[in-house]
Amino acid sequence: MTTKRHQIVVQGITVEVVRKDIKNLHLGVYPPNGRVRVSVPSRLDDESVRLAVISRLGWIRKQQDKFEQQARQSQREMVTGESHYFQGHRYRLNVIYCKGPSSVSITKNSTLELRVRPGTKRDKREVILNRWYRQQLSEQIPELIAKWAPTVGVTVAEWRIKRMKTRWGTCNTKAKRIWLNLELAKKPDSCLEYIVVHEIVHLLERQHNERFREYMNRFMPQWHIYRDELKQVPLAHEHWIY
Fold first, then answer.
1. Which of 90, 128, 172, 231 could form a disulfide with 177 if both were Cys (CB 3.0 to 4.6 A apart)?
2. d(C-alpha 113, C-alpha 103), whole Å
3. pLDDT tens digits along 102-128
4. Contact call for residues 192 and 181 (beta carbons, < 8 A)
């Protein structure tokens, strides 16, 4: 598929225009700062795109206001007393310096206990916590894929986890491989399940078009609720452009 990108400015709003071999125009506003992107058929000229954006300006600004008001975590210093999230719940971090192997555990249903050797630097403490997040996700994902791949009627050949600044998940349709963002370990279980289903459905339809939405409505009718829930939970410090 041929794709061309450029930007136009509509009443002070920068709009990314992506021309593809598609039939209909699709407009979206994305976190964290309300970036506007519109995918359009290759034949559509900029003036037509401009008119389409103008017709949706009220909706665009409403979405941008929501992102502006959304909670955002500051840079984490990995010290005792900080708030950290796991499966949608907020925990108080307690860093304990001690001999022996490093570990992470939840205590008293309110504390995320991080045990590290004396002198462990901030970046290493973050690596240890992220390793724990990865392990927790790795235990959840296989069960979700085993549940949803047969329901959707596809085979997932491989799945992987990585930190991504632009997407919650991606899908390689040729390899039948899905990637899931490590940040999903911090989000509610319903959000993780929604993203897993979202990427599995991409094995049936690559684009975010009407056919894709019809599949999502069929397999997970409440997907809009989970998508909105994902938008409401605090964003990580990274500047997302998803």
1. 172
2. 8
3. 999 999 889 999 999 999 999 999 999
4. no
pLDDT in tens, 199-230: 999 999 988 889 999 999 999 999 988 988 88
3-state secondary structure of 234: coil
Q: Where are the alpha helices (DSSP H) in 169-222?
A: 189-201, 210-219
d(CA 119, CA 121): 6
Three-class HEC string of 90-149:
EEEEEEEECCCCCEEEEECCCEEEEEECCCCCHHHHHHHHHHHHHHHHHHHHHHHHHHHH
Architecture of domain 83-232: 2-Layer Sandwich (3.30)
Cis amide linkage into residue 32, ω under 30° from 0: yes
Closest by CA to 85, choosing from 166, 192, 169, is 192
Select from 112, 49, 102, 44 the least CA-distant residue to 76.
112
pTM of the model: 0.70
Distance of alpha carbon 20 from alpha carbon 18, whole angstroms: 6
